[in-house]
Amino acid sequence: MPRVTYVSPDGEPTALDVEEGLSVMQGAIAAGLDGIVAECGGELVCATCHVYVETLAESLPPMGALEDELLEHVVAERRDNSRLSCQLVLGAEHEGLVVALPEAQV
Amino acid sequence: MNVVIVGTGHAACQLAASLRERKYEGDITLIGREPGPTYQKPLLSKGFLLGKVAEPNLVLKPAAFFEQKRIAVIEAEVTAIDRAAKQVAGLPYDHLVLATGAENRRLTVPGAGLDGVVMLRSQPEALALRARLAGTKRIVIVGAGFIGMEVAAVAAQLGLEVIVVEQGERALARAVSLPVSRYLLARHWAGGVRFHFGAALAGFEGEGSLRAVHLADGTVIPTTLALVAIGVVPNMALAAQVGLATGNGIEVDARLATTDRAIHAIGDAAGYPHPLYDNRRVRVESIQNAMDQARCLAQTLTGVPTVYAKLPWFWSDQWDIRLQIAGVGAPGDQAVLRGSPEEGRFSVFRLDAEGRLSAVESINQAGEHMAARALVARRPRLEPSQIRDPEFPLQQLAAA
Each residue of B173-186: pLDDT tens digit? Predict the structure, then answer.
């Protein structure tokens, strides 16, 4: 199970062991972590599971057109390392992944 | 301080979460009649039924969440409120919140209680339906609303013969414009789903278990499985019983308070005046409405009184089609097409009698829809010619 670290907007890290095959979003929801809203449950509708990928960005699934479109409408600033965490499905190679959570999702 | 919430669904869980996010320190108790952890409802009729979403991934908030946040959850049916003593289920409250949701409207025709006549709203119902879909070759679906249409698409994709029986003249008549309704219908037809419109149900035939569906015109459709999907009714019996105003839902004011200032109502059960629609009373059945009302009420209960004014939005997945709706359309609205149904990407802009944009329905254009959402929230007056013109910069209008 890859260990993923979620860093809150005020810099607080939370490390979670997330089952392979789950997304970064699902890992956060399953642990009840604040900062990822995921209003639509991972269906690419709501753009409320925005994260900034801090490590291992190149190993993650590539961004689809729909995710790219939705990222234009996230509430917090879109940066070069912005992703929607529902699209980041985890494998063994993502051990040590670090994502930072934005100031706001809604 | 003490907040008691009746309900354990999306609205209830989000309210508890938002209160804690806003540093509310008092006790929070959820009382609900469904056992087990809360789950994500929208996926039940879509990915979960199709087998694309596994059961553990339906969890909305895990048990650990409630422990960490000191949120108590009690499994019980609330049948009384002592408003004078401000007590419910033996608990004192400073604020009571009714997040009682809605339940499926039932059919009262003969045979509605037969085995094989099912409904879909809860996770157990979804599990049961999934098992039944795997064991049969045909399903009759009563009702061409969102649940009926989504399940029709799933069942057809699973290889079943699907027959939809609808009283009205078209699919999703209450929710979407005619062009969108037609577009979805065409996709269902292409996928093999067959429809009976203007068809009244006479009853279900069988002994113990279902054998056939009878229509009022004499048509008999043999089947062992029928889904009744004819909409929902708000759970407001408790509110009515304790003397709170009810109508289309539990009646609340702009800040979601009932006629008792210590009691609020949110989610599917609450009917409220919407500022974006001339304070017309609406009751919205959606996740967005439940979550946004919960966040709004959390502000009010933590000392920042807030009027609820969020634009409703909604989505549906049918076959390879993603439908998104922003705003509240009315049957008399003018429907103006932007984009091309032939290419499978278009929107319908709905204009009210005064030419103001009331809603946008989009097919397979998520990005443009997000811009349209911002635009509808401004309720601008638009000319149909502007909407039809692909060069007209709607995005800029939304940002202006």
Answer: 989 999 999 999 99
